[in-house]
From TrEMBL:
It is found in: Cell membrane. Coiled coil: none annotated. Belongs to the Lgt family. PROSITE patterns: LGT (PS01311). GO terms for molecular function: phosphatidylglycerol-prolipoprotein diacylglyceryl transferase activity. Residues 346-355 have a biased composition (Basic and acidic residues). Its main location: membrane. Pathway: Protein modification; lipoprotein biosynthesis (diacylglyceryl transfer). A 1,2-diacyl-sn-glycero-3-phospho-(1'-sn-glycerol) binds at residue 135. This is Phosphatidylglycerol--prolipoprotein diacylglyceryl transferase.
Length: 355
């Protein structure tokens, strides 16, 4: 990194430094939570549900993101394992975060009795909103930037403000602000998701798949601009195919960022982006064709646990209604047993003394 114009440390409490990176990620998580709660009210989902999901999902996402990054950069960590835990120095991968968060959400929603796809739909805008905010943490840290460019390209072609242009000057060389490209792409995606979820044709799970399609398309083109991509050595035809798919970016004046040959020739995030787009489109088609009665997005969301509780409550409510009848029958039987016998009709009412 070069000389930072922005201090990555927001403030200090005693010997503890609070970084802007952490504050920005915290803000991203909070905005995502508020968006989920807001939409959850439409389906009468409790706020506590989303708060619990966030408390479990964020650590799961961080762990997943770190494991993903370390797995592909193992040579840098195998001799100094303590560095694995220093996430404040950077080194997390968004796809790893998504994998960690999804695994947590699947387990959590199943435990609460909700359909994962219905909850994933509600959380899709939260995910993309969190990403568009979180990328500004990379800006403050002066990391995850793209390849070299010119000051004129940033100022005159893109018309970026000074504080962004200056921060993209790394050791005297200007770089593409890939954090900004992705943040803007995600902002547009957020608006699209807001519009889609009000459409009557949308089925359960499809807003979540739409998020993956939109994000992955943008990530495919933006990833090639970066100089810190995780990569592997793939077949030459695969590398050529990906480069050919990225070629339209050159028409807009962009060039791919340098990728060290020791890393490989195929960027992992680009390959995953292609996979996620294909998989998401396939899932939408297959689920519509194979699942009968696939609920729409706007259909009510009910927990199976809630149904079980309501069933038990109904059963309990019916038992007391039978109780008075049983008690009345029993009382009548008791009264009949304890009551004195009435004189028979043929006896003389004056009794023995009258004789």
């Amino acid at each position: 990194m070069g000389t930072l114009l922005l201090n990555p440390i927001a403030f200090s409490i005693g010997g503890l430094n609070v970084h802007w990176y952490g504050l920005i990620l915290g803000s991203a998580a909070l905005v995502g939570l508020l968006l989920a709660i807001w939409e959850g009210k439409r389906f009468n989902l409790p706020q506590d549900f989303f708060m619990d999901l966030l408390l479990l999902g964020v650590p799961s996402a961080i762990i997943g993101a770190r494991i993903y990054y370390v797995a592909f950069m193992w040579d840098d960590y195998k001799n100094n394992l303590i560095d694995i835990f220093k996430i404040w120095n950077g080194g997390i991968a968004i796809y790893g975060a998504l994998i960690g968060a999804i695994i947590c959400a699947v387990l959590f929603t199943r435990r609460r009795g909700y359909s994962f796809w219905r909850i994933a739909d509600i959380c899709a805008p939260s995910l993309i909103a969190g990403q568009l905010i979180g990328r500004w943490g990379n800006f403050v840290n002066q990391e995850a930037y793209g390849g070299p460019t010119t000051e004129g390209f940033l100022r005159d072609y893109l018309h970026l403000p000074n504080f962004i242009v200056n921060q993209m000057n790394v050791e005297g060389v200007y770089h593409h602000p890939t954090f900004l490209y992705e943040s803007v792409w995600n902002l547009v995606g957020l608006v699209i998701l807001f519009i889609l979820r009000r459409q009557k044709f949308l089925r359960a799970g499809e807003l979540f798949f739409s998020y993956f399609i939109w994000y992955s398309i943008g990530r495919f083109f933006i990833e090639a601009l970066r100089t810190d991509s995780l990569a592997f050595q793939g077949a030459s035809w695969l590398a050529g195919l990906i480069d050919g798919m990225w070629a339209p970016m050159t028409w807009l004046g962009f060039e791919q960022g340098y990728l060290a040959p020791s890393y490989g020739n195929v960027r992992i995030s680009q390959l995953l982006a292609i996979f996620f787009v294909i998989a998401a489109v396939a899932m939408i088609i297959v689920r519509r064709r194979t699942i009968s009665g696939l609920p729409h997005y706007a259909d009510p969301i009910v927990s199976t646990r809630t149904k079980e509780i309501e069933g038990l409550s109904s059963a309990s409510a019916q038992e007391p209604s039978d109780l008075p009848a049983k008690e009345t029958a029993t009382s009548r039987s008791a009264d009949k047993i304890d009551a004195p016998e009435e004189p028979e009709a043929h006896e003389d009412p004056k009794g023995p003394e009258s004789k």
